[in-house]
Amino acid sequence: MHCPPQSAETREFVFTPGDFDRIRSLIRERAGICLSATKHEMVYSRLARRLRARGVGRFSEYVALLDSRDPEEWQAFVNALTTNLTSFFREAHHFSELAAHVDALRRRRNPHVNVWCCASSTGEEPYSIAMTMIDAFGSYTPPVSIIATDVDTNVLATAEAGTYPAERVGRFTQDQVRRFFLRNGSGDSGAVTVRPELRSLVRFRQVNLLDPQWPVRGPFDAIFCRNVMIYFDKPTQRRLVERLAPLLSPDGLLFAGHSESLLHSAHVLKLRGNTVYERARAAA
Q1: Cα 6 to Cα 14, 45, 66, 193, distances in angstroms
Q2: Domain residue ranges in the chain
Q3: Fold of 93-283
Q4: Is the distance from CB of 124 to CB of 86 less than 8 angstroms?
Q5: Does the domain at residues 17-81 carry the CATH identifier 3.30.470.20?
Q6: Calpha distance 16→22 (Å, rounded)
Q7: Which residues are designated catalytic?
Q8: Sign (positive/negative) of CA torsion 266, 272, 276, 277?
Q9: Does 46 score more than 50 pLDDT?
C-alpha cells in the first residue's frame, strides 16, 4: 500500500488507506477520473473542506454520506477533485487551425458554425473560441453557436459570469482587451469582464462525459476535448472518442490536448495536424 496510515496527532481527520482507495474508486465511477496512488495528499487537502462543512470527523463517515446518494454532496465531491488548469488561447496553434478551418468552410459553403467545448473549466477556452470566430468573420455577430460544458458546477458559474483578474489577460494587446473585455475599475489592476457580444456566443451547460446520454446534438464543425482525457484510462478514452466522432460533421475537426494521443481510436479518427483530428473515412 502506498499510503501510510494517518494518526490523529498528524491529521485533523482520520484518513485511512482504505478510505483513499474507496474515494479513488468513487471518483473513477462518477467522473472517469483516475487518481494515482501518489494523490493521497491532494485528496486529503481538497476533501477536508467538505468534512468540515458536513461536520464529520472521519473520511469513512464522509464516504458513507456519498453512499447515501446525496446529490448535492456528490456534486461537491466531484467539484473538489476536478483539476481546472486553463488560460486564454492555451495551445495557441489550435486557434489558428480553427480560424483556417472556418475560412475553408466559408469557401465551400455558407456555414453556421457549431462548436462544442467539452471541458470549458472557468471559461477561458470557449471565450477564446468566440474571439477567434469574431475575428474570422469580422463581426461581433458571427453565424456561430458555441456550447461549453463541464462536470464542475463551480467553474461553470465562474465561466458564465465571465469576470477574471486583470492578470489573466496580461498577454493580450491593449486593442484585444478593449475589443473583448470591459474593465472593472480603472488602471491595470482589478478585474475584467467579457463583453456581452462575446458572452452571447456561448451557452454553458453541465455535462458529465461519462453519462450515457448527453444533452448536446451534433453535427459539430469543431469539438474541443482538450486536457480532459489525460485523467481517464485508455478504455474510457477510447469509448469517449467513439461517441464524439459521430457528432462531427463530415469535415469537422476534433482538437485534443498536447499530451493526449488518440492512436487507440484510429478506426474513427485520423491525425490531421498537431493534436488535431478528423473523421476516418470508414467512420464518415
Answers
A1: 7, 13, 22, 44
A2: 17-81, 93-283
A3: Rossmann fold (3.40.50)
A4: yes
A5: no
A6: 10
A7: 46, 150
A8: negative
A9: yes
